[in-house]
Design brief:
This protein is of the alpha+beta class. The chain has 2 domains: 1-86 and 178-319, Up-down Bundle (Butyryl-CoA Dehydrogenase, subunit A, domain 3), CATH 1.20.140; 88-177, Butyryl-CoA Dehydrogenase, subunit A, domain 2 (Beta Barrel). Helices cover 52% and strands 14% of the residues. It is built from 10 helices and 8 strands. It has a 4-stranded mixed sheet, with helices on one face. A 4-stranded antiparallel sheet has the order 2-3-7-6, with no helix packed on it. The radius of gyration is 20 Å and the shape is globular. The two termini are 34 Å apart.
């Protein structure tokens, strides 16, 4: 089974806003479209295929769908059930010294890069080394969407959340469990599947632009991007066959993420060079696709993550 489906999914109609994406996400929840196979039991390729499809359709929608699916998988790994018909997110950023803290069962602090600020029902929040679940309608949850100034991923309803002595509903796993569990690695590779879908979506738009006319330089760039995309797809598909059973899945996860991030960066760089300024300035969907992809892949920390990968390779060689 290929990771990318043969036919691209139908994109969302324009205008594309946080409100329209939130409504589509709610519709998908009710229809069961967010009920992805849980990691484990040989289902991870199917899971990643669905995530890639979300990304190919719309990266901001995929960010919200992946967050919900990740939360459901985390709860399942903790032997807990999600609240029925509730949209979830996972808010775990500790950017620039920010982050939430838990004191006597109450949550305080600021968490950045929270997607689904106004549309989600519940969230799993990292509070120090403890993961907690809370109802986002609880008093003391202050949302700051104006903190998000980027055009890229602007419809993902993202921003900062300030928690002011908010009671939590329940603890999810023991202290330190959230990052130590196997599912943390599988979730990271699932995000790479979303990036791959987003890159494929940009390439879909490039191909449509070139159907009327293309010169050899444009075709050469298109062929190079297609080869890079299929290479990363093949790596992810191969990883899916072994990563669930691997005793040390971290190295494989980091390799997959690095490969897809590199491919996506090439797409961000070369796609506008293929099309020229016209589509960037006159095609809202294409311009948004490129901007979204550029922002979303920065969940990969560039040279810092590559250095960690290189260090792991040396340690493996010396073992």
């Amino acid at each position: 089974m290929n990771l990318l489906k043969d036919l691209p999914p139908k994109p969302l109609p324009l205008p594309r806003t946080a409100e329209t994406l939130g409504a589509e996400l709610r519709r998908m929840l009710v229809a069961g479209a967010l009920d992805l196979p849980l990691p484990g039991g040989g289902t991870v390729l199917r899971r990643w295929r669905e995530l890639a499809g979300f990304g190919r359709r719309d990266l901001a929608l995929a960010r919200l769908a992946e967050g919900h699916a990740d939360a459901v998988a985390i709860l399942a790994e903790a032997a807990q059930a999600p609240a029925p018909l509730s949209l979830y997110g996972v808010w775990a950023s500790k950017s620039s010294g920010t982050g939430a803290e838990l004191h006597n069962g109450r949550l305080s602090g600021t968490v950045r890069f929270c997607s689904g600020l106004t549309g989600l029902d519940r969230a799993l929040v990292a509070a120090g080394d403890q993961l907690v679940e809370l109802d986002l309608s609880t008093a003391g949850v202050e949302r700051h969407p104006d903190a998000w100034q980027s055009v890229g991923m602007d419809a993902s309803d993202s921003g900062d959340v300030v928690f002011d002595d908010v009671p939590v509903d329940r603890l999810v796993g023991p202290p330190g469990w959230y990052v130590a569990r196997r599912g943390f690695v599988l979730g990271g590779t699932g995000v790479a599947a979303v990036w791959l879908g987003g890159a494929a979506g940009v390439l879909d738009s490039v191909r449509e632009t070139l159907r009327a006319k293309a010169d050899d330089h444009q075709l050469a760039h298109l062929g190079a991007l297609h080869a890079a995309l299929r290479g990363s797809e093949a790596l992810l598909a191969s990883a899916a066959a072994t990563i669930e059973q691997s005793p040390s899945p971290g190295l494989l996860n980091d390799t997959c993420r690095a490969s897809v991030e590199r491919t996506a960066r090439d797409v961000v760089d070369l796609a506008p060079r293929i099309t020229g300024a016209g589509p960037l300035c006159r095609d809202r969907r294409f311009a948004q696709q490129v901007a979204d992809l550029q922002v979303f892949i920065r969940q990969h920390h560039g040279e810092r993550d590559l250095a960690a990968l290189g260090r792991a390779l040396l340690e493996e060689a010396g073992a």
